[in-house]
Task: structure prediction
Amino acid sequence: MSAAIYIHIPFCIKKCNYCDFSSIPFNEPIKDRYLKALMKEIETTPFAGKVETVYIGGGTPSLLAPSEVEAILNKLEQKFHIVHGAETTLEVNPGTINLHKVRALSNTGINRLSIGIQSMNPMELRFLGRVHDETDSRNALKWISRYFDNFSVDIIYGIPGQDLAGLRDTLTQALGYKPTHISAYELSVEKGTPLSYMLAEGKIMLPGDDDKIAMYELVSDLLAGKGYLHYEISSYSRKGYHCRHNMNYWMRGEYLGFGASAHTLVRETRLRNIQDITGYIRLMEERGRAVVEEIILTELDRVNEEIFLKLRTDRGINADTISTASELLHHLEQEGLILKKNGWIRLTEKGMLLSNRVIVEILDTIEKATVIPV
Result:
């Protein structure tokens, strides 16, 4: 098999106000036990074969020492065939690195960093609950651009109080360091987060739909003007620098996940590791396996996932997959939301803006019109 690998490092200095990912405050003894459990899971996995991409996410994996990152990559190389030129990414928080650490990371086997600056506005950073400030971001970008030819910058738009001028300033500053990739995410409200409580209690107001559309269009237009390709709803890259790891997800390629809450998809079977970090350590120590859910996907599951994932990208989906929605597709094409070409269907720029609506309509139509054995 040929697959992508995701490694979850669940430690943070503190949880951001909008985050619902699996993470806990950094603790050295727990971290050591977690890494030992992680190494055991990699070593004992029944899967083997070629690996095209490795992505170490979190959490805040840049809290690890470079030697620990290198040890993870070495363990993967002992178990799998990491192909020449594989993309190996580490997520980085600007408040957790310095020049020495960036230089050391460049010698570990990591060849791509993904840095979450989110904003260059101090008030927005404080609202989001980030542990870094705009000076940390500038320093981190300066160091990273010196030692890495390939790096991505994450920003967030739709923050309460954010305006177009502030968003433009964040983008302009980030672009000054010549990142090869930018991900721009609309702020989402996840259940159980401090952000959700603030909203429920009326302490904050999110920007209206018109404001968020204007922000989305600003991002798309500004980055297109700078030569970035809009290859996925939230993703922009220089030519040849799309995130290969994420593209594997969106194209429904196979992937292996290691660590707490990690997911695996192999031969149309989805596996999920326990989310609780101490529970993950305990299961690996006692049983040598942390999988708590195994689902064999049906044909309907596969089709729905193909629609939901592939339509996020500029590659789109084979028209045969959604041929039963031909009448709807005609209307969407008339609205300028999709483009048909050479047997493939993809979202237009306007379609990407309204992707939730378009994808849900297609999924609903397919489910009603098609009887698939389950």
Q: What stands out?
A: The mean pLDDT is 94.
